[in-house]
Amino acid sequence: MSAPVTFLVASPHLRGGVFEGAVILLLEHDAKGAMGLIVNAPMVQTVEDLMADAAGQRDPAWLGGPVDPTLGWCLYPDPVGLDGEIKLLPGLNVSSSLDVLRAVMASRQRYMLVLGYAGWSGGQLAEEAREGAWVWVEQDTPALLWDVPAQERWQAALDRLGVQADRIMPGGAQA
User: Could you report the per-residue pLDDT of 46-99, keeping only the tens digit for each?
Assistant: First the structure.
């Protein structure tokens, strides 16, 4: 069995800006920092709008975060067998390779083209979590990503924990 993936769910008290109501797929988290992709913020632009060789790709592109919006990531279920693929768990792969993105589009599987990412310096994410900005949701399937519409992912993530949004207190845990 694969290790679970972690979704960061914005506290209902995190208001304003790009992270309000965000669900973030956490890709890395260690002593040096953390990075992840917002997975519930579809953009107005489609993949076709953004790529000259993507005619017919009318699915929305996604805002992955405020850092480096020129960097694209592809989330997709089935590996395509190229360098640059990272299997997060069965049914969920990620790559920042343009060749992988093109192969995924050619395979006609579902995918998300995510632009930019969310990043934190060493210790910053842990501190924000202690302050109550984020709820951590671990999942051993990609169902939250593939089976839940984007506008419902925030509530669905909280539901998976059995947490009611109106019961989350601002300020985080205090010892």
Answer: 999 999 888 888 999 999 999 999 999 999 999 999 999 999 999 999 999 999
Q: Judge whether 175 lies within some domain.
A: no
- 155 has pLDDT over 60: yes
For 128, the domain range is 5-167
Residue 137 lies in a domain: yes
The DSSP annotation for 81-146 comes to --TT-EEEETTEEEE--HHHHHHHHHHT---EEEEEEEEEETTHHHHHHHTTSEEEEEESSSHHHH
CA distance linking residue 46 with residue 55, whole number of Å:
10
**Within a domain: 173:** no
CA distance 72 to 69: 7
**pLDDT, tens only, 118-128:** 999 999 999 99
